[in-house]
Amino acid sequence: MKQEELSILNVINNKTDVNQKDIAKMCGVSVGKINYMINPLIEQKYINRKRVGKSTRYYLTEKGIESLKQGLSSLQDNRVNIHHRSFKPIKQAVILAAGQRKELQNPAGLADLDGQVLLERNVEILKRNGIETIVMVTGYKKELFTRFSEDESITIVENDQYKWTGTMISLACAAKYITDDFLLWESDILIEEYAISKLLNHEERDCVLITNESGSGDEAFVEIRNGNLYKITKDIHQLNKIDGEMVGISKISYNMFKRLLTEFKDNRNPYVNYEYLLLDAARHYKLGYLKIPDAVWAEIDTPQQYHNVVNFVYPRLKRKEAEYQKQQIKEILREALQLNEEEPFTIEPFGGMTNKNYKVTLRNKEYVLRIPGNCTENMINRYEEKFNARIASDLGIDTPIFYFNEHTGVKVAEMIPDAETLNAKSAKRQEHMHLTAELLRTLHTSQAVMKNRFDVFEKIEEYELLLKQANGENFSDYKETRAAVMRMKDIYEALDVTLTPCHNDTLPENFVKSGSGRMYLIDWEYSGMNDPMWDVAAHSLECNFSPEEEELFLQLYFGQPAEEKIKTRILLNKIFQDFLWSIWTQIKEAQGDDFGTYGIDRYNRAKANLTQLFERV
């Protein structure tokens, strides 16, 4: 039945003593159109009419009543879509951690799970899945959350009314800091990482995570109708059917959040929880759901639940996550190395400052699988890296590459047999200096042309922007130091340096010697055309060469003592890279990594070398 016909039936149903003129006025159309439309409805026995004196009265038949009921039900089930586009990447999260569990001594989110705090685990999961900023709402024993205030990506706000309020008050406390779509996570929820990743990548921007019933005794049951959330309740008697249980983790768009705040503005019930306001909104707007039936998860509200989590749920979750990780690796290997479904292999994690690296043993051969680390997609051009790494492989400087996905950065390469990775101490041995100097000379004199140019001054501006986007802060005297570094730019550019293919990250751990004594240079993420003295300077810095050790290395590289202008070039490059990598460290730490004093040490060394250079020039 058409919308206009339903409108006529609805008007007649609400007021039987009505004429065609009244119906036309209430429906917002002309009397002529009503006359034209009402006769077929009478003929089809949706409406009866009866003359009373000079007037005509209209009544709905049983057929008309049933049609109106079905039509209105259909209209009610059609929610408004408040978004112009569907999927949008989520960069922000809100964690609700204000509440008190009377049977627990401390906030549930601070529960210890085999040596790791639940909230710390959840924060790590968020960051691994692209979340850049987190708002954490505290209340009960707020002083115990100070450890999180040291993380620059986390903003802590307080709900000082937590004793007398529901979760919507806590969510409203975070409103000032919510600037976009966000993931909402209740702090007492333990869940496998797969579920978070799946929810963040779900196409619907307003989406509630649900699972099968847990049997915990405190379930928030869910009923779904026409693909939308229809009811949320803890009273099982209110539901026609049970489609699952709400976990306590949702993806909420900024538009939906503003509507929740509007609904909440005139609220007089401080105990209201956010999920019931979500349900109110869902009566008018599309609110989707993601159901993961077999998700491993648990809520920690009582000592009994905590005991169950520690002894049963968390061990099962860790086993499932390990198996999931292995399955992901298996999928990569299947694509890269044509791995059969049943073919056995072993994986073993090892090393990596930026990425996750795994040693894979398959068919009696060993491979290195690299999976890029957190947020590296903004800092590294994988297409350029793939091109440049192929050059290094063709030159015999690095091992053969079997697979390289320039979109994800995942790479599979041949493992160096009986590998010995250099460190700052072993790199100083003369035999190793000879091998590394010879390898760098081979690269720099190869005449190969890499895909890109590594321009340190462009990189400084790029990293400054990334730091700002990560809400990070730089050192207190950064502006003054930056100005001094930029004054060196004119001096450096006047040297008219010829660019060559360079690695640009020649720390000793990127040099690996095989059992046969052959040296390799790995990890070409920062490679590009550059001053070859950048590589020399970087190696000297990272190995902490003494002046005498640097002199020896230069003699091995050049085959003769280095000229004074070369030494000036090297000192300039030392300043530039210490300054650049100190910003890089600030970015990584703003994203949640911890590099100790690495960043400030490099920054201070750049300042010390600036003083030395001023004395020289």
| First and last CA, distance | 88 Å
What's the count of strands? Answer: 25
Strand percent estimate: 15-25%
The percentage helix is 40-55%
Give the count of helical stretches: 19
Low-confidence stretches: none
> Which CATH class of the largest domain applies here?
Alpha Beta
| CATH-defined architecture of the largest domain | Alpha-Beta Complex
Question: Biggest sheet, open or closed, and with what strands and sense?
Answer: 9 strands, mixed
Q: What's the number of domains?
A: 4
The dominant shape is elongated
**CATH topology (fold) name of the largest domain:** Spore Coat Polysaccharide Biosynthesis Protein SpsA, Chain A
CATH superfamily of the largest domain: Spore Coat Polysaccharide Biosynthesis Protein SpsA, Chain A
Q: How large, in whole angstroms, is the Cα Rg?
A: 33 Å
Mean pLDDT: 87
Q: Given the helix and strand composition, which structural class is it?
A: alpha+beta
Secondary structure topology:
Elements: H1 3-14, H2 20-27, H3 31-43, E1 47-52, E2 55-60, H4 62-77, E3 92-97, E4 112-113, E5 116-117, H5 118-128, E6 133-138, H6 146-149, E7 154-158, H7 167-173, E8 182-186, E9 189-191, H8 193-200, E10 207-211, E11 221-225, E12 228-233, E13 244-252, H9 254-264, H10 274-282, E14 288-291, E15 297-299, H11 303-337, E16 346-349, E17 356-362, E18 365-371, H12 382-394, E19 401-404, E20 411-414, E21 420-421, H13 430-444, H14 456-469, H15 478-493, E22 500-502, E23 511-513, E24 519-521, E25 528-530, H16 532-543, H17 547-558, H18 564-590, H19 598-616
Helix pairs in contact: 1-4, 2-3, 9-10, 13-17, 14-18, 15-18, 16-18, 18-19
